[in-house]
User: Fold this.
Amino acid sequence: MSEHERLRVKKTYKLYVGGKFPRSESGRSYPVSSPDGTELANAALASRKDARDAVAAARKAQRPWAGQTAYLRGQILYRAAEMLEGRAGQFAEELADATGADPREALGTVEQAIDRLVHYAGWTDKYTSVLGGANPVGGPYFNHTTPEPLGVVAVVAPQDDPLLGLIEAFAPAIATGNTAVVLASEAKPLPALSLGEVLATSDLPGGVVNLLSGKVSEVAPHLASHADVNGLDLGGVADAGLAAELEAAAAETLKVVRRPGRDGGALDLLRQWTEYKTVWHPAGMAAGAGGAY
Assistant:
């Protein structure tokens, strides 16, 4: 009996939308290569319809996600970090292939990405106390301000930091109860698409994070002009002219926009994707029950 060399099963990189892994509805794909020109795989080339489907999935998931306890959201983010830790070797290899980084350096970046998920998991039940609170007012009232999620946030991920930069972009949004539609690095989308597999096995409800791959110039305008998107992160838009066009399109539907090159700490990023609700409550409501407060 002759020996036959086994054919390796090559990975198919698909979109991650609504907790599922569809191909692009257009049937298109594009080749992804390493910096030295080695072809790595084909990635789905997302279309306008894919972007709209991702926004619809994010909107459907947003209210239930925001309605979960902060503790549970933190536990799910922590679970995602656990799952990424278990596959650190795979992601280090994909990251090294995508960026040309030394394998040890790539592993260090994966570990930073894991730590970032843990970091934002810890913020889920704390940021409301830091950003909100009781306000001093003159009169018989209690006055409280509470941060609430914007809704659906569209993110153009950093082009040269396909894993850590991606997580830094969407983690603050979902930690605060938003859902996200993320357009991965155009030239280096494979680590992001693999991250969808981590999220799918982390108890994260389908639709909370949706991952698209494709051309920024093709997909981002549809996200920027979509009336059901409440926030837009342009951190991964390298073309200043395109960034200005996207910001103008976003202004038509009054979105919160994070401009390219705008840096900030964790608290600034958490604050970016929240809005504030202030409630006035008469202080004497309990007086008829035998007391006041």
Notes: Strands lie at 29-33, 39-44, 133-134, 141-149, 152-156, 179-183, 209-212, 231-233, 256-258, 274-282. The chain has one domain: 44-288. The domain at 44-288 is CATH 3.40.605.10 (Aldehyde Dehydrogenase; Chain A, domain 1). The CA atoms of residues 235 and 261 lie 6 Å apart.
